[in-house]
Amino acid sequence: MQVVIRKRMAMAGAVCVVVAGAAFGYVEVFTKGIDRLPERPCGGAVDRRLAADALPSARKAEERGKLTSPDDLFFFSCYVRTDDSIISGEVQAGRATEATWQEAHRSDREDGAVLVSAGEVKALALPTRAWVYVPCTPRRTEEGTKERRSLTVRARTIGETRLHGAALRQVVVDFAYQMARHAYEAGECGETIAFPEELPRSGSN
User: Fold this and answer.
1) What's the rounded Cα separation, in Å, for the pair 55 and 67?
2) In sequence order, which ranges of the chain are alpha helices (DSSP H)?
3) Residue 29: which pLDDT band, with cuts at 50, 70 and 90?
């Protein structure tokens, strides 16, 4: 009888080891994909935590940032990806004013996009999409031809997401805002804008 009991205890112990090993393996293999990326992906543009909050866990994750700046034209893109889920954005230099930018996104406001702002920096956000406007006149623009210009950002998630609703909206607009801050410095804008550490939480202003 004691032999049978010892065998059963040994078997139970073995099962516990297998289960514990499987759980440990899941943590180490499946949830560390994003954690293996740089702390600030896309050349330091964004916080890795935002991607980790937005995207599902996966075996692998990848990131890429691309900056092109011929003359006073400026374009910056960034994406972080796990399997078929992506959070990404683009920053484009242009001649939009705040008024024309707001007008261009009238339909998004009608769809429920939330407006948040910090001084001259304006942002609109839906749960899976966000846009940011920042005044930016490149320093390299010839003095006689200078006119007020801007950087506009578009960001979104594609595929399944870890968060939803208002929580996801906050992550996407924060991602877009961090891209805007990075692009503002890289674009050598002539304005002096004091960027806060983060935008006001959506709905708080």
Assistant:
1) 24
2) 2-30, 41-44, 48-54, 98-104, 106-110, 165-186
3) very low
